[in-house]
Amino acid sequence: MSLSSLPSLAPSPMPPSLESPPPGPMAGPCSLLPQSNFIGLNIETMHLFLSDPDAFTCTLRIFHPKLVQRSYGKEKRFFNPPTLIYIHGNGWHRNDARVREILSRYHVSMQSPNYIPNSPTLPNLPVRWQASVGIGDGTSQMQLPVDARNFVVARSLFISNADKRKQFRITVDFTSFNGPSTLYPVQPLGTFNSSEIRVVSKPPKKQSTRSAESAMVCLKSGMIVAIYNRIRAQSVSTRYLYTQGTAFVGSNDVWSAYYIFAVDKVQNSPLSNSFVMDEGFIHYGDIVRLVDALTGVSSPNMIIRRIEKDEIVLVNSADPVAQLQKVAFQLCDSVNVYWSVSMAQVVQKEATIMSEIAHKVEDSFSWTLTQADVKDYKFFEGNGPSSTPVTPIPIVENLTLDGTSEENAVVEVMGTDLGKRLTVWFGLVASETIEANRSFIQCRVPPVGYVNAHHPINADCEMYGTSICVPLTLVRDDGVIYPTKAQFLYSCNTAGPLGNVVTTDLAAQRRSEFSKHMLELNRTRFRVQDQVRSEVSNVLRKRAYEGM
C-alpha cells in the first residue's frame, strides 16, 4: 500500500446520467447538493462502469483492532492499534470534480438577477472530507479530517467502565464540507461500521485452549493481526508494523493487517520461500510467517518466542500465544538474531546470549500482537453526487443458483443491508426481482441469449470457449452501484445446466485454465502444421529427386 496521493484524473466525456445535475434548491440544512432522483440506472452508465470499475469505484476501508481493553476511573486506555479510515480509488477524484462543478454552478446562480436572497450563501472554498468517529454509543464522536495520505487516524478512542458492553462496533460518519470549518456541509456520504470488537478488562496472561473464553483470545493460524512495538506503555514511542512497498517499516501512526500462519515443520524447510500452513492454535516455539492481508508481501519464516521480564525464553512451550502478550521473532537461520525496530526501520539485530535457554531482551525486540480486521466498502454514484447517503452498503455473503433451465433458474443472494431498493444486474442486464428483504434477494436469471445480445458493447463480458462470464452487480433505485465479487458463468451448450454462480477468484481461475487450454491447442496446432510442412517438403524433395 502506498502512502502517496492518488493520481489525478483527466476529464473524460460522460453519458447523460454521469453528468453533474443542474443546481437547484438545497436539499436541507444537511447538504448543499440536490436530492437524489429515483430514475434508476441506464445501460450506458453501467457499461462505462463495468468497462473499467477501478476508474469509478470509491473504496472506504476501516482498519481496527478486534480486541481492546476497558478503561477504569480517570485512566484512558486508548485502543491500540488506533482505528484507521483509508479512502482510495479513482472514484473519489471523479466525485470531488463533479461536486465542484455543482458548487461552481451554484456560485454562478448566486450572481444572477433571479437569485433568491433568502437562499443560503456559500463561500468559494475547496471541498474536503471529514470523518466523525465514535464507538456507537451516540456520544464521544471525534471530528477528524482526511490527511494528505488519504488516511484518518483515530488515536483517542476508548471505552469506559460506565459502558458495560462486551462487544461494540466503531461508527464512522463521513461528510464533505465546503472550506475548513463544518459550517457548510456538502455531501453526507453516510455511516460506516467496523466489524464487532470484543472488550477485555486486562491483557490475558498464560492461556489454555480448554475453555471457550480463553480460546477466544489465543492466536490461531490464519488469523488477521496487527503488530506493534511499544516501550514502557508510552503511546508516543509506539511503532506499528507497516508494509511500505515490499519493505516492512515501523510507522508511528498507520499500520498494516497481517495474516499470521503457523508453518508446517514436517512439510517445510524453515528457510523455504514457499510454505505449507499448519492449522490450529499458535504455540511458543512455532515457526510462523506474516503475510500482508492486502498486498501479499511476506516475512521470512520466524520462530515466535515468549518474553518473560528481561529474557527471551528459548524453551518451546505447550502454551498457546495469547493476544496482547509480548513476543519476539527469531530468524530461523540464526542462533540469536531477531526482528528489531530501529526508528522507522525493521531490521535484524543480534541478542546477547545469556544461557542455552535464554537471550537478553531489548525494547526493540518486543512485539505485541492483537487480532485485527479490515472492512471494505465499495460504491459508485452512477447518477452523480446527491444529498442521499450511499449507506447502508449491501454486503453479499452467499449466492446460490436454483433451477437448471431458463424457465426456472433463479439466483438467491444472501447478506446484510439488502432489500427491495436493490436490483441484481447480470452484466448489462437488470434482472427481475421475485422477492427481497434486508437479508435476502431472489431474482430471475436473464436468458443467455438476451445477455449475449449485449456482448458487442459489453466490455465486462468475457468468453471462455463454450461459456460466457458476466459480473453480478447490485444497483440501488437511485443509481448507486455496489460491485460484488461474484460472477455468473453461462453455459453455451445446448444441453446441461444453464450456468453457475462463481466468485471472482474462481472466475480468474477459469480464465487461467482457458488460457492454458488455448495455449496448448495453439502448440498442438503449430506442431501439426510443422509436421504437415515437413511431410509436404519431404514429398516435394522426393518428387524432385525422382524427376532428375
From TrEMBL:
Official protein name in the record: Calx-beta domain-containing protein
Annotated region described as Disordered, given as residue ranges: 1-26
GO molecular function (one): RNA polymerase II cis-regulatory region sequence-specific DNA binding
Start-end of Pro residues biased regions: 10-26
Native species: Panagrellus redivivus
Domain RBP-J/Cbf11/Cbf12 DNA binding intervals: 59-213
Family: Belongs to the Su(H) family.
Keyword Transcription: yes
